[in-house]
């Protein structure tokens, strides 16, 4: 799918210091009934964000006006559970372009990369620093630099590097997706299929 | 010439790599692709937007399961959004010539139940589906895992996805299981030891006597839950149990092709000297019937034990407190004796015939507790028919239970089968996340035996009392 190219993102961040945030929290199953990709942002973190009577829960971070930005900073093991790509769509649709955590679930990480959200995995120590920086100043700017593979707290200059494979990095920086690549391999794939056992 | 010793996982993976991208993923060939109504519509939309078709429609199989009602399936689906998704699946599969076992079809059922029972799932295959519990099919010695919708589109367009090869983990459980200890308990035990993220980045091979002696249904239950410790999938080496299960199933090879296939399948095992990135060994004697008390599947305990304290847990205290608070439980509480409101038996984890036999073995001659609402949901029409043929339905009816129609049902509560807020449900499904079974619902994951004991007593009860 078409998504925004990602090079250097400088933004304030939204803190979510909860571990094991699963995809059922990011987007509950009852909101997976659309046949289009758009509009999931309204139901992002639905049951943490709204009470049963639809009123916003004041204690949830997305309802706190002092926090905003395109970066979500979350506790370890973010995105566990269901394979629903809707979780990544909901984050993207809401306006996030980057999720930072000390650990990601595999399927979520792959889905995020495929739709233009950069998952940035950092050490537990740096994650703590980020939470402290945002707590001290909700407008604290964080720079996520994909070409350099670094994340920096601009006010203090504290920095850490992160990993991403060269192929995905190139895709994210150019807004490419895998299907174009696979389409270009059709001959090789048909030859492989002809020799396959099943 | 002696080849390098390799694992079962390596053998199957390496045979499916079309091309390796340097500093990138493998172009990975997919033998079988399952789709359902919820995670496929946007993939088909993607194909349309690109103006491309489905490369090998005969390799994709569609079923409707996630949002389907489990009563009155002969009537039009009431929820307009669900109906629209089901219609989209019907239209898309017809357009591209993909086999579709929709609502009402005699082979309809949960995707991970119907694949194996029709012999579509075979050893040595690569299998994907836009559903994380695709790991179920690993029970046959296949590499099977869940994918996102972008990847569903890739498979439709090219029969390939792009996957970095995961690391390898082996989990051995030696010895034999005690009476009343089910495959689900083995899975919940392992996950409680490894945590819900303990196998992230790995593909698991289950080995040892416990899995060698386990039925295909049991192996499916265990492989199904692999994702609940973060593993992309889990697999068991195919053996005589596997071949006996598959022999004669509709899509399985026949005659000479069968003999040839079995000869190949027998080579699908880990060599004696092959190495894993991580190995765990457990003793079956340490496993008792399990139950979860928290909001991820790693938060489980032996049923006779008390809820652990935050100090005993690896994660942060605030996350732990949040979980117990949601469940309405306290540290050190005893699990036995807690009152429950709902029992759900079914899902791709425990919706197969063996699960209903186990459930019936306890409720036979007893009565459902008045305080309990029970939803008994077969995994497929084939399972439903077996329940009737084997007389299990009579036992259920006699005990005050009703049998519903197949589907994912209360496992993820996309249809009307929602557990009300604050209520406790003993559930044979796979996830106890907040709100998974309905907003505010409190899920206790367990085996069909534990679910049965709870259904007849109205509280958490050790099923061994009834055996």
Automatic annotation (TrEMBL), chain A:
Family annotation (InterPro entries): 3-IsopropMal_deHydase_ssu, Aconitase/3IPM_dehydase_swvl, AconitaseA/IPMdHydase_ssu_swvl, IPMI_Swivel, LeuD
Gene Ontology process terms (BP): L-leucine biosynthetic process
Pathway assigned in UniProt: Amino-acid biosynthesis; L-leucine biosynthesis; L-leucine from 3-methyl-2-oxobutanoate: step 2/4
Keywords assigned: Amino-acid biosynthesis, Branched-chain amino acid biosynthesis, Leucine biosynthesis, Lyase
Transmembrane segments: none
SUPFAM superfamilies: LeuD/IlvD-like
GO MF: 3-isopropylmalate dehydratase activity
Keyword Iron: no
Pfam families recorded: Aconitase_C
Catalysed reaction, written as an equation: (2R,3S)-3-isopropylmalate = (2S)-2-isopropylmalate
Superkingdom of origin: Bacteria
Top enzyme class: lyase
EC number: 4.2.1.33
UniProt-listed Gene3D superfamilies: Aconitase, domain 4
Gene Ontology CC, one term: 3-isopropylmalate dehydratase complex
Domain Aconitase A/isopropylmalate dehydratase small subunit swivel: 5-124
Family of the protein in this entry: Belongs to the LeuD family. LeuD type 1 subfamily.
Its job: Catalyzes the isomerization between 2-isopropylmalate and 3-isopropylmalate, via the formation of 2-isopropylmaleate.
Subunit relationships: Heterodimer of LeuC and LeuD.
Name this protein carries in UniProt: 3-isopropylmalate dehydratase small subunit
TrEMBL record, chain B:
Domain (Aconitase/3-isopropylmalate dehydratase large subunit alpha/beta/alpha) ranges: 10-458
Keywords (A to Z) from UniProt: 4Fe-4S, Amino-acid biosynthesis, Branched-chain amino acid biosynthesis, Iron, Iron-sulfur, Leucine biosynthesis, Lyase, Metal-binding
The keyword Iron-sulfur belongs to this UniProt entry's keyword annotation: yes
GO biological process: L-leucine biosynthetic process
EC class of the enzyme, as a word: lyase
InterPro entries: 3-IsopropMal_deHydase_lsu, Acnase/IPM_dHydase_lsu_aba_1/3, Acoase/IPM_deHydtase_lsu_aba, Aconitase_4Fe-4S_BS, Aconitase_4Fe-4S_dom, IPM_dehydratase_rel_enz, IPMI_cat
Cofactor note: Binds 1 [4Fe-4S] cluster per subunit.
Pathway: Amino-acid biosynthesis; L-leucine biosynthesis; L-leucine from 3-methyl-2-oxobutanoate: step 2/4
Record-linked Gene3D superfamilies: Aconitase, domain 3
SUPFAM superfamilies in the record: Aconitase iron-sulfur domain (SSF53732)
Highest taxon listed in the record's lineage: Bacteria
Gene Ontology molecular-function annotations: 3-isopropylmalate dehydratase activity; 4 iron, 4 sulfur cluster binding; metal ion binding
Pfam families the record matches: Aconitase
Catalysed reactions, as listed in the record: (2R,3S)-3-isopropylmalate = (2S)-2-isopropylmalate
Residues that coordinate or bind [4Fe-4S] cluster: 348, 408, 411
Summary of the function given for this chain in its UniProt record: Catalyzes the isomerization between 2-isopropylmalate and 3-isopropylmalate, via the formation of 2-isopropylmaleate.
Family matches, as HAMAP family: LeuC_type1
Quaternary structure and interacting proteins, as annotated: Heterodimer of LeuC and LeuD.
Family the UniProt entry places it in: Belongs to the aconitase/IPM isomerase family. LeuC type 1 subfamily.
Name this protein carries in UniProt: 3-isopropylmalate dehydratase large subunit
Lineage: Bacteria, Pseudomonadati, Bacteroidota, Cytophagia, Cytophagales
């Amino acid at each position: 799918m078409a998504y925004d190219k990602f090079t250097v993102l400088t933004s304030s961040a939204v803190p979510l210091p909860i571990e094991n945030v699963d995809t059922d929290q990011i987007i509950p199953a009852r909101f997976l009934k659309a046949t289009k990709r758009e509009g999931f942002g309204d139901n992002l973190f639905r049951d943490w964000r709204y009470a049963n009577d639809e009123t916003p829960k004041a204690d949830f971070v997305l309802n706190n006006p002092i926090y905003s930005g395109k970066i979500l900073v979350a506790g370890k093991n973010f995105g566990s559970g269901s394979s629903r790509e809707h979780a990544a769509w909901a984050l993207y649709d809401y306006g996030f372009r980057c999720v930072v955590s000390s650990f990601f679930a595999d399927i979520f990480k792959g889905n995020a990369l495929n739709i233009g959200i950069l998952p940035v995995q950092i050490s537990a120590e740096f994650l703590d620093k980020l939470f402290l920086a945002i707590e001290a100043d909700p407008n604290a700017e964080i720079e996520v630099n994909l070409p350099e593979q670094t994340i920096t707290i601009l006010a203090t200059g504290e920095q850490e590097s992160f990993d991403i494979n060269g192929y995905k990095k190139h895709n994210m920086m150019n807004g490419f997706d895998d299907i174009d690549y696979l389409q270009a391999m059709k001959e090789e794939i048909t030859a492989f299929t002809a020799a396959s056992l099943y | 010439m002696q080849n390098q010793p390799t694992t079962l996982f390596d053998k199957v993976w390496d045979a499916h790599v079309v091309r390796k991208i340097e500093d990138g993923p493998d172009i990975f060939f997919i033998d079988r692709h399952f789709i359902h109504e919820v995670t496929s519509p946007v993939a088909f939309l993607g194909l349309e937007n690109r103006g491309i078709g489905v490369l090998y429609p005969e390799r994709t199989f569609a079923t409707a399961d996630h949002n389907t009602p489990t009563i009155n399936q002969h009537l039009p689906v009431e929820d307009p959004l669900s109906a629209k998704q089901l219609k989209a699946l019907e239209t898309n599969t017809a357009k591209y010539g993909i086999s579709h076992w929709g609502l009402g079809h005699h082979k309809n059922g949960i995707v991970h139940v119907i694949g194996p029972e029709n012999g579509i799932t075979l050893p040595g295959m690569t299998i994907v589906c836009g559903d994380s519990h695709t790991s179920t099919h690993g029970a046959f010695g296949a590499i099977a895992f869940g994918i996102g919708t972008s990847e569903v589109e890739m498979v439709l367009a090219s029969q390939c996805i792009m996957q970095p090869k995961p690391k390898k983990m082996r989990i051995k459980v030696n010895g034999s299981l005690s009476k009343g200890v089910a495959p689900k308990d083995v899975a919940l035990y392992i996950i409680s030891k490894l945590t819900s993220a303990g196998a992230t980045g790995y593909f698991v091979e289950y080995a040892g006597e416990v899995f060698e002696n386990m039925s295909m249904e049991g192996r499916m239950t265990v492989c199904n839950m692999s994702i609940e410790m973060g593993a992309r999938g889990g697999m068991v080496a195919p053996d005589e149990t596997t071949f006996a299960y598959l022999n004669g199933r509709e899509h399985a090879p026949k005659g000479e092709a069968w003999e040839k296939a079995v000869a190949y399948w027998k080579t699908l095992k880990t060599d004696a000297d092959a190495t894993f990135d991580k190995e765990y060994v457990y003793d079956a004697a340490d496993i008792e019937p399990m139950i979860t008390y928290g909001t991820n599947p790693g938060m489980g305990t032996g049923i006779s034990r008390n809820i652990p304290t935050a100090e005993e847990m690896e994660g942060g205290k605030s996350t732990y407190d949040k979980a117990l608070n949601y469940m309405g439980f306290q540290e050190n509480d005893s699990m036995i004796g807690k009152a429950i409101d709902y029992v759900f038996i079914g899902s791709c984890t425990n919706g197969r015939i063996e699960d209903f036999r186990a459930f019936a073995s306890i409720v036979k001659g007893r009565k459902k507790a008045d305080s309990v609402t029970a939803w008994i949901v077969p995994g497929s029409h084939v399972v439903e028919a077996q329940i009737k043929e084997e007389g299990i339905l009579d036992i259920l009816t006699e005990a005050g239970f009703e049998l519903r129609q197949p589907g994912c049902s209360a496992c993820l509560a996309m249809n009307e089968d929602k557990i009300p807020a604050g209520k406790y449900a003993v559930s044979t499904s796979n996830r106890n996340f907040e709100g998974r079974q309905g907003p505010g619902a409190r899920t206790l994951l367990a085996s069909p035996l534990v679910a049965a004991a709870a259904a007849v007593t109205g509280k958490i009860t050790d099923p061994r009392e009834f055996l």
